[in-house]
Fold:
Amino acid sequence: MKFSQKFWLPRVTIVLVGVFLSTGFAIAADKPHYVATNDDAPPSLNTTVTFYTVGSNGLLTMKDAVSLGQGGIAGGYFAANRVSVLDSGKQECVYASIASTGEIEGINVSSLKVVGSASGSAEDTGASNGVGLAVNSKYLYASFTDDSAIGTFKVLPDCGIKFVGDITVAGLQGGTIDGMFIHGNIMVTSYGDGSIQSFNISGGVPVSNGDEQNSTASKKGTSDTYPNGIDITQDGHYAIFGDTSPFTVVEVSDISSGKLTPTVVYHLGDAINSSNILLSPDETLLYISNNQGDRISAAFFDASTGKLTKGCASGRLRGYVKDWSYLASLALEETTGTGGVVYVAEFGAPSSIAEIKVTSTGTSCTLQELPKSPVSDPNSPGLLSIGAFPPRPF
Structure:
């Protein structure tokens, strides 16, 4: 069985988005501490970004909902991160995409107001599977799933952005752009057909490194396993791929040469799907969203070798089936250590965010849902992407 790449409310198909987050003890006293969502309401409804404050106990409290207008789709790729966070100098911004229109909105974290907006080319939209985002201090990148294009936007003062140009991309078997992650001068992408690719972004607009290839897991004749979500280690040595799969499968590529190398496959459990992943700030744990199951997992990661070993899994998260159907992107409470509390987007109508406490000795770990978890997101009938301010340092 090959899992579908998208989920729509009227029918039971699959796949969705990705995530990213952090902060805690390393937060400056004058900085706010938020978890933000892309609520992605259906096209006929107003969609929002909902901001939650993070308490000292890791629990979330809703603060405000910032209106983006109409154009969400309440579905799409797991690995298309529809929220991206920038904390660079005076730039304190949350960027969010509107799928149907392809618009990207910049929200000032201090005022919680939309202060910037831009679109790509006329064809640059994401009504099929959303618009993923990634940002650094100079450029924001958007993955438009309708025309399988990567758009480049220049970051302007006060969270503004300006369209620079776009490139059309495709997997080796014709797959559309799926996951996207940037680190330094490299961008790594996944496609919906099992292939992966990297680009040089030192000049802004991505230039292919000429390394497009099928992942090791997807080449083994198992068409139901293929790379989706992406993370990159702090030193830029390894790219990690969370696979869409009937099991918990993760692949790792050595990118220290500046290009992708054949992936090493790790089977980390029997829980269904592993499309969203997130490294802990200290890189000792890789958190894995078992998207089509009822829990999340953690694997031990060796940043010096790129090797993964089985770690631990949470129990059944509250509300599964009754209140929500899928797990999506992951985020963290803290920017140091193992991250403190893991936040997980729960796709439902309305949606919610699970709060899961992490403990680790380095050789064993536990993932325990907090007593007051989950927190409701009444503004979203299909939550896929969450992020945090300030973001993880890498």
